Amino acid sequence: MNEMIMPFILTLDATLRLASPLMLCAMAGIFAERSGIVDISLEGKLLSGAFVAAAVTTASGSVWVGLGAAMIATMSLSALHGFATITHRGDQVVSGLAINMLAMGLTIVVGHAVYGRGGQTPALTNDLRFSPNTLWLSDMLKDVPLLGPIYSELLSGHNLLVYLALISVPATAFILYRTRFGLRLRAVGEVPEAVDTAGISVFWLRYRALILGGLLCGIAGAYLSVALGAGFAREMSAGKGYIALAAVIFGNWRPFRALGACLMFGFLESLSTRLEGVELPLVGELPTQLMLALPYVLTVLLLAGFIGRPTPPAAIGQPYIK
Amino acid sequence: MFKSLGTPPPLPRWAEVLLLPLINIAVAFLACAVVIWALGENPREVLWTLFQGPFLYPGNLGYTLYYATNFIFTGLAVAVAFHAKLFNIGGEGQVTLGGLGVGLLVMSLGPTLPAILMVPMVILVSAAFGALWALIPGYLQAYRGSHIVITTIMFNFIASAIMVSLLSGPMMQPGQMSPQTPPFPSNAVLHKTHDVLHWLGFDQVANSPMNLSFFVALLALVGTWMLIWRTRLGYEIRGIGNNPDAAHYAGIRVPRIVLLTMAISGALAGMMALNEVAGAQQRVILNFSGQYGFVGIAVALIGRNHPVGILLASLLFGALYQGGTEIDFNYQSITREMVTLIQGLIILFSGALYYMFDPWLARILALILPRKANPEGGPS
Amino acid sequence: MTQPVGSAQQAGGAHSAPRLALELEKISKSFGPVRANRDIDLQVESGTIHGIIGENGAGKSTLMKILYGMQGADSGRMLVNGKDEDIRSSADAIAKGIGMVHQHFMLVPTFSVLENVMLGTEGGALLADGRTATRKLLAEFAEHYGMRVDPDALVGSLPVGIRQRVEIIKALKGGAKILILDEPTGVLTPQETEGLFDILRVLKADGVTILLITHKLDEIMAITDRVSVMRRGEMVGHRDTKDTNPQELAELMVGRKVLLQVDHTPANPQELRLTVDGLGARSKAGHQVLQDISFELRAGEILGVAGVSGNGQSELMETLAGMRAVGEGGFDLLGHRVDARNPKGPDAMRDLGLAHIPEDRHHHGLILSFQVQENVILGYHHGPLTGQGLLMDRDKIRQHSERLIEEFDVRNGRSNVLAKHLSGGNQQKVVIAREVDAVPKVLIVGQPTRGVDVGAIEFIHKQLIALRDRGCAILLISVELEEIMSLSDRIIVMNAGRLVGEVARGQADENELGLMMGGGRAKPKVPAAQGEASHV
Description:
The complex is a heterotrimer of chains A (322), B (380) and C (536).
Chain A: H1 2-34, H2 42-60, H3 63-87, H4 92-115, H5 138-141, H6 147-155, H7 160-178, H8 180-190, H9 192-197, H10 202-228, H11 240-250, H12 255-275, E1 279-280, E2 284-285, H13 288-292, H14 294-303
Antiparallel strand pairs in A: 1-2
Chain B: H1 13-38, H2 43-56, H3 60-83, H4 91-109, H5 115-144, H6 148-167, H7 193-200, H8 213-230, H9 232-242, H10 244-249, H11 254-270, H12 272-281, H13 292-302, H14 307-330, H15 338-352, H16 358-368
Chain C: H1 6-13, E1 20-31, E2 34-45, E3 49-53, H2 60-67, E4 75-80, E5 83-84, H3 90-95, E6 98-101, H4 113-118, H5 127-145, H6 160-172, E7 178-182, H7 190-205, E8 209-214, H8 217-223, E9 226-231, E10 234-240, H9 246-254, E11 272-282, E12 288-298, E13 302-306, H10 313-320, E14 330-333, E15 336-339, H11 346-352, E16 354-357, H12 361-365, H13 372-375, H14 394-407, H15 424-437, E17 442-446, H16 454-469, E18 473-477, H17 481-487, E19 490-495, E20 498-504, H18 510-517, H19 529-533
Helix pairs in contact in C: 15-16
């Protein structure tokens, strides 16, 4: 029986691996957007995080230093986004685009200048990566029917950052709905005037939201280059930041629903890899390239109100002017 | 007890149109110089190479104009939408669809028709496919309330997926492994400028990918200028952009104008495929859109959404692109992606941080310039 | 965290409290060339209700924003409870015991009442304790002041009166002893207004100092102890309420005693141009904003629509001008039927010969970032004004624009000047020139002289009369009763989206009209206030 469900388990396992960076970025997006700032710079932050993590890990010989540096880099980019959009009330989309382009240019230029080889960082050995952790009792439970493979193959055997990604979702929900910071954050994305007149600084609140998001993007970037991969390759974020943004919208700016969207998008991706070139009975070979576009198609359909109605934070996109 | 710096005086128009953009570009280059310096190269030399690149060799001007053609189309596309306060960041996808449309047309008709019929059809189809790809987000914004920024981003990715599956499937050249169509027959191409000039007897002109679509781009510049500032439709486009409520009062059907604006914007973007697909490559290759759709935003920002500004910005960017290849050639450690970095910085300083220097510049100018009597806060 | 309500009471009850709760000296504030506040002096006694009254744009809101730290003054001094204070932010104001109820509520509609009230006083990094404490606070407010609200209700689902209650609780929750209310009754029904006043009286008895900003004379007379009057950014007078009367206050507010005389010749009404029957319309949110409106309008007459602002007049104009969809009923305009089944947009209305001078020139009448010559063709840009060709005829437009500037005396006007660089009166002249010059068969005009200086008012009034005498049918909507009475040949009165009466010119005085505008609303305390206000 366990053999029969193995393909499903493996697909789900891949789903989890592919969805992890999406989850982290989506939570980052939720923090930014619930505070009223459009954040399409998730993509650029993810890319920079990946580069800095790989480069600093290579240089320092410690994956933890690499992770820390990645978080600092992405938080700086978030601060830049804040400087442009909060302090100078610049257009949030334009600022996000600028950061994405900066990230793309900088990672390649710096990578090439330092490492040659077209901007690729040297391959990292396994001790310089976040390697898979085997969960407690995993080997013993392996042969238990049904639950065994789910535990030992699906849940166990991931690297630390996957678990961090999974924890980030309830953590985000807790911060948003159970803490003072979260209450104010949600308020500032809806009616910033209400926050201001309550004697709370709108600017500082939004900066904190952005920087917290930057931190999460840093982890996501490190995940790509020093956990899932073993080094940085140019443009390795490959639109994942935008998919995370789609997941935020799809999840109606709520953490657990966004998690669902991330898992669905990750599942679509793992399925398309699995089915590439495979002749299925009745339907034949599926256009796997088009399946990769499904997250975007679904998000457009959602936005158009064909599947439910998204309700974005009311003050999103508007700079706050007293 | 109360003290404040006070509101700075408004910036004179010439300063806003000329001085401020120049300052913003200069700051972007300064930031880039810092990066070059940090990488251990001499910023002055690198930037000098970048700038003189277009003029070093006789063929380079042609390359510059070839790149500029792309920027004119995508820059105009962004600008037209901007006039209606629509942020079309879907240029990338619209370019892609324009190219695919041209590919489909040429592959289905083959070399049957004479060029005099085929070339206009190629132009029309590139515009029509681009327009269609912008029309859907336009429709969703006008009638379904979905935000155009997000939908156009999504449409870029969808277009890219369509391109990959078509080019590695039905449109792929048989017997080839790379995702591209067969070369176009000569009735469907826009000829290279150097071929035309050679034919006219100018033998010394160096070869470059520059082709006749550059002149289509010039026409598009003039056409856009007339559209925006001389036609009733342009009046309505600017009307809904500046005050949608007043536009509604004036009987302008806002959703309809949103649709038309997006269609025109998409058509302009789609026509970029003329340069890349029908002109330079003479076939559809993977990722021919090459981020030009995004860079169009930078072009429109620097060009202040005016065709003259867009022409100048396109020439600047064309020169930068050409200079980028010189950098690749001359430097071990620095690559042409330096240009992407500069574009990012330009978008940052000319776009998101546009008003950072405004109040300071205004204060400085107010100190320098003689004060004019200005009754009733009238125009200066 | 939140202090119990009692603290306000104690402070007020204490006899050692300083006599003056609030004192302003020479407060000034400019926005560019506009001087919103000029050398404002104000003294507010502890434990009183102090009114500040003035017309729209007199500078009241700016002053309140300075008091609450939302805007910094350019110069001046402010004392709270006798101490010199520098209030630079709302947080400072709150810390000094100043609470404010804003004209536009500062509430998050997607939050519960509880969450809204606790915002800013959460009592710790986690919300759990704060929730309990705030729940207790709300119970205290309910008990002490009778201000009952369901803590778990979503604010967005509450009626306006209850939302305002939440705002007041928010303003008082930290034990504020000075409460500022900015135009609190603008959105309230008469019953809700009474409820609000009851609460204010209880608060005053508790020792809270209340500053009430309004432009309504009857409210000042009904509830305040002392009143200060603002006009054009200046404080023009202070009176004890019992020693003054609406007439005097109105004169102070407006600053002129003579009624503007318009040469109003008798009308010569002719054929029917507009017949409205049973017209109804709804807002976007689905509220009935117009109900069962029926009237007739003939060529060569001015029909005035009187009413307190926000009683459906704007919606009536918009519906007749094609800007808002007809719900029930409909109207016949120059022989064309318009109803839910036969909708007509603003362009179609204009083609029929209807012109519309909208009440808000900034939002509707003009595109401020357009030049004057671009604004004089707004709405007529498909017509003969722009020529025949594919491209617009720029010379023709410029000549047209220059002629209008000349004829309608737009000062400092040149064709290529941006509309935003004109003064309010000249902007209005551009709109009026455009619509009057189109020689409409029917003209709908709203608040034609709002924010316009005296000279321009006379000019605009003359233009309207002249247009009437050329045979135009004019529907005039204004909240200035004086304007309605001096220009109209007949007057209809609106209240709560309905027509409540019609009178011929000279048949009703301000008192009667005022009563009708109130919709039969009983005003035992100050029966004549509304009427006398317009006696100026």
